[in-house]
Write a structure and sequence with these properties.
two-stranded antiparallel sheet, single chain, five-stranded antiparallel sheet, alpha+beta, 4 helices
Amino acid sequence: MSKKLMGKVVLFTLKMLKRNNYIYMKTSVQETIRLAIKNSLHKIDETIDLKWINKHLVDPTNIKLCTDLNNKIYREFWLVTDHMGEDDSAYRVVFDDQNNVFGLETTLDNGINWYMGDYGDFNEAVKHM
């Protein structure tokens, strides 16, 4: 990974810390997510496009996902990447703060946002997209 691109991703991560002219408390879930992403970036496989990551990372936002399609059971997760209208994946990376892992989400044909499962750290989740 080039130092220039790594610097851009780190700057983006730091920019996510600022919102409405203040910095989130370090104990917040959003901060935990940002730090986990930052700590995963050095392990990013060279086959993964860092430009894609930088373009699709979003400020962590709560999202409800279906975890059991038969019983329509939903749970809250944190959305970490999102569709931007260009070069989008069918999947989005989410963070499960109950288990402290990243996972993947996809929208099914019937419109249900389904949690596909845990994938470990941010790097592993992105690799499985």
